[in-house]
Amino acid sequence: MQSEAIEDLRFEQAARAARSERANSPRYLVLLSGFLFVLAVLFLVVQIRDRAAAEERVERERRTAQRAVELSTRLAGLKEQARTAGPDVGAMDTGPMLFTRLETIAQVAGIREAIALPRTIVGATIPGARQTKYEYTLRGEAVEPMLRFVQQATQQVKGLEVVRLEVTPEATGWKVTAVFSRWERTEGA
Question: What pTM value is reported for the model?
Answer without folding.
Answer: 0.51
